[in-house]
Design a protein that fits this description.
- This protein is of the alpha/beta class.
- The protein has a single domain, classed as 3-Layer(aba) Sandwich (Rossmann fold), CATH 3.40.50.620.
- The protein contains nine helices and six strands, in the order βαβαβααβααβαβαα.
- It has a six-stranded parallel β-sheet, with helices on both faces.
- Strand 5, helix 7 and strand 6 form a beta-alpha-beta unit.
- The longest helix has 15 residues.
- The protein is globular and about 50 Å long.
- The N and C termini lie far apart (about 45 Å).
- This is Probable nicotinate-nucleotide adenylyltransferase.
């Protein structure tokens, strides 16, 4: 049975922190591949300004270029409507009976999991993999992990990764303010694409 990781998000923009997380999950969990899944219309961000989904999709294709074990899916974009994780995972399972899926999410997602639509459906259709992020103490994360495991009767996989201080929101803000973005944050291709499209100049 193939082991497939799913890394979802708005990717507005995608950055090298996303690549680090995906690579670590791929290696540590011995996955066959990672699928990057840009959200079409995230239900928790309907009140926020989000870059056009096709532009975000193109940026994810650029940043994952050259990684044979990374794929990019436009499923949530092309299907339209709000992007609910449990529906995406259900679809993937029904279409790929020979695969086991691993849904990769940050510490903030675990702490807010009870606010997600159909948590049981998410955990029934994929193993949940969580990693730490700056501002989320490891002890609190592990405590919440245990609570979720007991409540839903599913094991949560914890990846103890470096907590990189990189965020898409910070990148957008710095570009808007005319500040330079370090080379280790964005790939050259994504940086050039952002410049070519004039993204994040005025938010």
């Amino acid at each position: 049975m193939k082991k497939i990781g799913i890394l979802g998000g708005t990717f507005d923009p995608p950055h090298n922190g996303h690549i680090y997380i995906a690579e670590q999950a791929y290696k540590r969990l011995k996955l066959d591949k990672i699928i990057f899944m840009p959200a079409g219309s995230p239900p928790h961000k309907t009140h926020k300004q989000i870059t056009d989904e096709n532009i975000r999709y193109e940026m994810v294709k650029l940043i994952t270029k050259g990684y044979p074990y990374f794929d990019v899916s436009d499923y949530e974009i092309s299907k339209g409507g709000l992007s609910y994780t449990y529906l995406t995972l259900k679809h993937l399972n029904e279409a790929n009976k020979d695969c086991k899926f691993y849904f990769i999410a940050g510490a903030d997602s675990l702490l807010q999991l009870n606010n997600w639509r159909n948590v049981q459906g998410i955990l029934d259709n994929a193993a949940l993999v969580v990693f730490g992020r700056p501002g989320f103490p490891k002890e609190k994360l592990l405590e919440e992990k245990k609570k979720v495991e007991e409540k839903y009767n599913h094991e949560i996989i914890y990846l103890d990764l470096l907590e990189l201080n990189i965020s898409s929101s910070q990148i957008r803000e710095e570009i808007e303010n005319g500040l330079p973005i370090p080379d280790e944050v964005l790939t050259e291709e994504v940086r050039e694409y952002i410049g070519y499209m004039g993204l994040y100049k005025e938010r």
